[in-house]
Amino acid sequence: MTKNTSSDKDFTVEEKLAALYQLQSMLTEIDKIKTLRGELPLEVQDLADEIAGLETRLQNYQSEIKEYEGSVVAQKARITESKSLIERYKGQLDNVRNNREYDNLSKEIEYQGLEIEFSEKKIREYNEHIAYKRIEISHLAETLSGRKNDLVQKRNELDEIISETKQEEERLRERAKNLEATIEPRLLAAFKRIRKGARNGLAIVDIQRDACGGCFNKIPPQKQMDIKLRKKVIVCEYCGRILIDPELAGKE
Fold it and tell me: In the chain, what are the helix, strand and coil shares in percent, each to the nearest 5?
């Protein structure tokens, strides 16, 4: 003789609805845990991406400063070269043989003087850029430090929540699995199908203020009476969710 299992037992409609609502409550708690965990990883990832972006910008600023410093060195070298040429040209003025040579040397001296002025102007501009970039780096470093502290805090928070909720989620899943074994397969399949299509994951809801607790459309008085009798499974004609009375949901 085969031993009867809980799934072999004939349950009343009321017992089936109560089991479904209990299952829904467990799955809703699991959804809340997943949502809580689901938001934090996104926050952690956003912070990590922001930090990576800030570090890249910091490196770019530092590279730009090195380029400006290199340009300053180059301009100083040009000034040194121009001064050397001026000295040489001035020395050659004493040995000119005609006015043409004198004019040419004078023009070269004037040109090198303009080159020095231009280089000095460029050096001032480069130094201004360097000073501005250093201020930006200072602000950026401060922001980066704050974001890194936020990231550490968020990661610790995430690790703590995962640690705290993992056991609770496993416990709820085990209870839900055991409860599913007592529910008629066809009814359970319908429940899961409705739950999958519902935006908030609610497949079975109670009546709230004469309306469906899922889509909030009004339920006719006669249908409300049928729901209270708990003689058959009744679904909302608007959203397809299974309906139960508030008393069975433990709200009255």
Answer: 75, 5, 20
Q: Tens of pLDDT along 31-55?
A: 888 887 777 888 999 999 999 999 9
Of 247, 242, 252, 248, the C-alpha closest to 202 is 242
- pLDDT at site 3: 42
Task: Work out whether strand 242-244 and strand 204-208 pair parallel, antiparallel, or are unpaired.
Answer: parallel
Check if the beta carbon of residue 214 is closer than 8 Å to that of residue 236.
yes
Residues 6+ apart with CB under 8 A from 104: none
Can you tell me whether residue 218 is helix, strand or coil? strand
Where does residue 92 rank: exposed (0-12), middle (13-18), buried (19+ CB within 10 A)?
middle
Sketch out the chain's domains with CATH numbers.
36-170 (1.10.287.1490), 185-244 (no CATH)
The upper half-sphere exposure of residue 125, i.e. CA atoms within 13 Å in the direction of its Cβ, equals 9
Q: Is the pLDDT of residue 168 over 90?
A: no
Tell me the percentage of the chain whose pLDDT exceeds 90: 74
- Report d(CA 173, CA 178) in Å as an integer: 9
For 223-242, how does the pLDDT look when each residue is reduced to its tens digit (9 = 90+)?
999 999 999 999 999 999 99
Give every CB contact of residue 243 below 8 A, 6+ residues apart in sequence: 204, 205, 206, 207, 212, 213, 219, 223, 227, 234, 235, 236
Which tokens sit at 89? 């040209």
Stretch (H or E) spanning 204: strand 204-208
Dihedral sign, Cα of residue 45, residue 50, residue 54, residue 57: positive
